[in-house]
Amino acid sequence: MHMPAITAFYLAILALIYAVLALQVVGLRRSNKAAFSDGGNMSLRNAIRAHGNFMEYVPIITLMVALIEMSGASALRIHFFMGALVLSRLLHPIGMYAAPNSLRFQIGRVGGIFITIGLLIACALTILSRLPLGDFAEKISSQAIAAIHFLQVIHIILTL
């Protein structure tokens, strides 16, 4: 296995985007004197959600892509996955600051989440397709059979 260098490169870019989102929240909290929550300010609420949404999706997708890269997937596939993640994470905050149902809102929020959910599914299916599930199923079934035998022995002992 090798270090997932392509994933690491994109993760550094994503970390910078995350820092910008965090600084937006900090700045809006200071200017609105809202140490906690959003203080009823719509801009702060949107910044908090853009920041939170980033943190909800980026770690799991990045972890899955790193595993895919470490399993020997092509560099092109890794660039595609991570490039799409960067794009989706740039689009989402743009949509968060747009008027509801505007074109910017549709492209940003709807497009961003569509790409993100697509990535979740694509990465999960890629990982599942690379796992030796036959060996895994055999081990689980062997352990289940052993557990059943153990429970039968316990039952016999308890009913003597």
How do you describe this structure in short?
The chain has about 160 residues and is an all-alpha fold.
Description:
The chain is mostly helical. It is built from five helices and no strands. The chain has helices spanning 5-32, 42-70, 75-96, 103-130, 133-158. The model has no long low-confidence stretch (mean pLDDT 88).
Any chance you could write out the topology, listing elements then pairs?
Elements: H1 5-32, H2 42-70, H3 75-96, H4 103-130, H5 133-158
Key phrases:
160 residues, elongated, mainly alpha, 5 helices, 83% helix, single chain
Taking pLDDT < 50 over at least 5 consecutive residues as the criterion, the unreliable ranges are: none
Seen as an oligomer or otherwise, the chain set is single chain
Distance between the termini: 54 Å
How many H/I helices?
5
* Count of individual beta strands: 0
Largest sheet: none
Structural class comes to mainly alpha
Fraction of residues in H or I helices: over 70%
Tell me the series of helices and strands, N- to C-terminal. HHHHH
Shape verdict = elongated
- Mean pLDDT across all amino acids: 88
Which percent range describes the beta-strand content?
under 5%
Rg calc: 23 Å
